[in-house]
Write a structure and sequence with these properties.
Distance between the termini: 33 Å
Shape: globular
Structural class: alpha/beta
Strand content: 5-15%
Length: about 180
């Protein structure tokens, strides 16, 4: 809620970019410390988590990562502004079971039409996209064969768990993508 308020203040010129960056850095440090001091889990599926290229707001994806850890997932956190071309190989090398991307800004034109489908085809694991980008661009995300998560962390966790359950089902009983 604080970051939403700061964003609104910035839009209305009551706040400043410096104010937003100050509180963003403060939150990133606090959330990073919470993540750092958690015990590493030895079981559970492993998720590669990062922001879309051009996305520098990572507080939401950090909060998602903490929630996913609470749900038993192991997290490989890469942070903001990650090129999609590097993620399939990174996910394979680190033994990830899924890739979670986050975005709050409208991505460049070819990101969802070209780069995301390439990632999905090379990743050999489910690719999820959350944040406001996933709401605004859900049709393009689905065309790319990725799974939009929306902005609610609880709902996102349920969608991810359902996707992994569906992968365990025989091909004849799976829900269509």
């Amino acid at each position: 809620p604080v970051l939403v308020t700061l964003g609104e203040r910035w839009k209305n010129t009551e706040g400043s970019i410096a104010e937003e960056h100050f509180f963003g850095a403060f939150m990133r440090n606090k959330l990073g410390a919470r993540f750092h001091h958690r015990h590493q889990q030895t079981g559970g599926k492993k998720l590669l988590v990062c922001c879309l290229p051009g996305e520098h707001h990572e507080i939401g994806v950090m909060m998602f990562s903490l929630a996913a850890h609470d749900h038993g997932y192991r997290i490989v956190y890469l942070g903001s502004n990650m090129p999609l071309q590097e993620l399939a190989l990174t996910a394979r090398r680190s033994g990830c079971d899924g890739i979670v991307l986050s975005g709050s800004v409208t991505p460049q034109d070819d990101l969802l039409s070209r780069e995301l489908p390439q990632l999905v085809s090379h990743a050999h694991c489910p690719v999820f996209l959350g944040g406001t980008t996933s709401v605004r661009c859900s049709d393009a995300i689905e065309r790319a064969r990725a799974l939009p998560l929306g902005t609610d962390i609880r709902t996102s966790m349920k969608r991810i768990e359902q996707a992994f359950e569906d992968l365990q089902k025989p091909l004849t009983t799976r829900k269509p993508a």
